[in-house]
Amino acid sequence: MLANSRLLLCSDAPESFADVCTELRAQGVEVEVRSLEATSADGDYRAIIVDARHQPEAAIRFCRHLRPDTSSSPPLLVVATRDRAVADLDHQTGADAFLTQPVQVHDLLKQIDWAGRLRDLRGKVVGKTDEIHRLSRKLQVCFERYQREIELAERMQQRLQRAALTEMEFSGCQFVVHLTASRGCARVFRLDETRVGFFAACSLREGMTGALVPLFLHSVLDTRETNGNTFRIRGPEEVLALLNDDFVAIGCAGEPVLTIQYGTIDLISRKLHFARSGGAMPLHIPLNGPVTTCSAAGPLIGVGPGAFTVPCLPLQPGDKMLFVVDRLETGNHDLQDRVERLRHLPVVELVKQIAAQPNTGPATLAGLEIAVAK
After folding, report:
1. What would the pLDDT profile of 133-172 be if each residue is shown by its tens digit?
2. pLDDT in the model for residue 332
C-alpha cells in the first residue's frame, strides 16, 4: 500500500515506535525520524506522524507551523494518550486522524490511506471552490455591466418621455399627462380631424425588458386600419386586443407585461370611449355631482386572450376625467376620496397634486377637461 513511499515521524521518544518503524521498513516504507523542535518538515512525505503523548503543547506548535496550507500538505496523524481529549487536540492541531498507543501497523496504514484520500478530496473541493469564486467574480462584473445598461436604458426612456409630457388642447378639450413611475409612458395624439386618442401605461416587467416595454408600446400601438387611401379608426377594445396579441406573439404569454388605459374622444360630440387593462378605475369628475368610477373590464396585457369592455361616456362642459395607471392591478383604493377633495382644481393642477401625494405611489396619470363655453 505504501511501498517506496516516505513517512515522517516527529517524536521526542522515537524508541517507543521502534517496532512500528521496523515493520514499516520491512514493507519498503522509508521512515524518517525528527524531534518536535524541528522547525520544518520539508520533503515529499506520504504522511506525517506527530507524537503528542509527552509534550502536547510542543506537538500543537509543531502542527501549526507544519502546514499553514492544509490543502496542499500531506496528511497529518497525531498519536495521543487515551486521557487526552481528542476534540481538544483536533481543533488545535488540524489533524486528519488520531491514534493511541500501542500503534498497530495495520491500523496506521489504513489511517494513512484514508487520510490521503480525504486530503485529495479536500484539494479537489478547494480547487472547485476557487473556480466557483472566479466564476462568481465574472458573473458579478457581468451583472454590474448589465445593471448599468438597464439604468442607461431607463434614463434614455425617461428623457424621451419628458419630451412628450406637454399640456395639449384640442378644440376646447385640454389634456395633461404626468409620470411618477420610472417605467411609465403616456401619449396624446390626433386620430383624425375630430377625434383624439390617448393612453397611459406602466410596465410590469423588471430589467432590460421593463425598460424596453414602453418603447415597444410606442412602436406597435395600432390605432388605425389603412386600406389604400382610406382608413378606419380602431376602437379602444380593438387597439388593446391587438396590443395583447403582439405581446403574446413574442413569447410573453402567461405573465402580465404592462397595465394600460387607452381612450378616444370625439371633439364634436364629446363622447369618450376607453378600454382598461389594469390600473385604478377611471374617475369621472362632473361639473356638478359626485365623483364616480367608470368600470371597464379586460385582461392584463401579455397574460392571454380576453375581451375588453368599452364604456361610452358623453362629457359635458366643465367635466373632467382622471386616469391613474400604476403597477398594481388593484389600483389606488382611496383615489376617489382624494379626487373628491380636489375636484374644484383645473385638470392640470388636479393631476399634479394627485401625482404628488404619497398614497398615489409610482404611476402614470392622464387627465382631460372639457372647457366651459364663455
Report:
1. 999 999 999 888 888 877 777 676 666 555 445 678 888 8
2. 56
For 168, 287, 340, 341, the CA distances from 345, given in Å and listed in that order, are 17, 11, 10, 9
Nearest to 331 by CA among 308, 354, 306: 354
CA distance linking residue 369 with residue 169, whole number of Å: 9
The CA distance from 354 to 178, in Å, is 10
* Contacts of residue 114, Cβ cutoff 8 Å, sequence gap at least 6: 97
Could you write out the three-class secondary structure of 259-293?
Answer: EEEEEEEECCCCEEEEEEECCCCCEEECCCCCCEE
Q: Which residue has the higher pLDDT, 122 or 335?
A: 335
* Sheet-wide strand order for 312-314: 184-190, 195-203, 258-266, 271-277, 312-314
What pLDDT, on a 0 to 100 scale, did the predictor assign at position 160? Answer: 59
Q: Domain count of the chain?
A: 2
Question: 350 and 204, same structural domain?
Answer: yes
Domain, as residue range, for 221 = 165-370
Based on the domain organization, do 232 and 353 belong to the same domain?
yes
CATH number for the domain spanning 92: value is 3.40.50.2300
Question: Where are the strands (E) in the chain, listed by range?
Answer: 6-10, 30-34, 47-51, 76-80, 97-100, 168-170, 173-179, 184-190, 195-203, 224-227, 230-233, 258-266, 271-277, 283-285, 292-293, 312-314, 320-326, 363-370
Helix or strand run (H / E) with residue 337: helix 335-341
Model pLDDT for residues 243-268, shown as the tens digit of each residue = 998 888 887 767 888 899 999 999 99
Give the rounded percent of residues in the chain with a pLDDT score beyond 70. Answer: 83
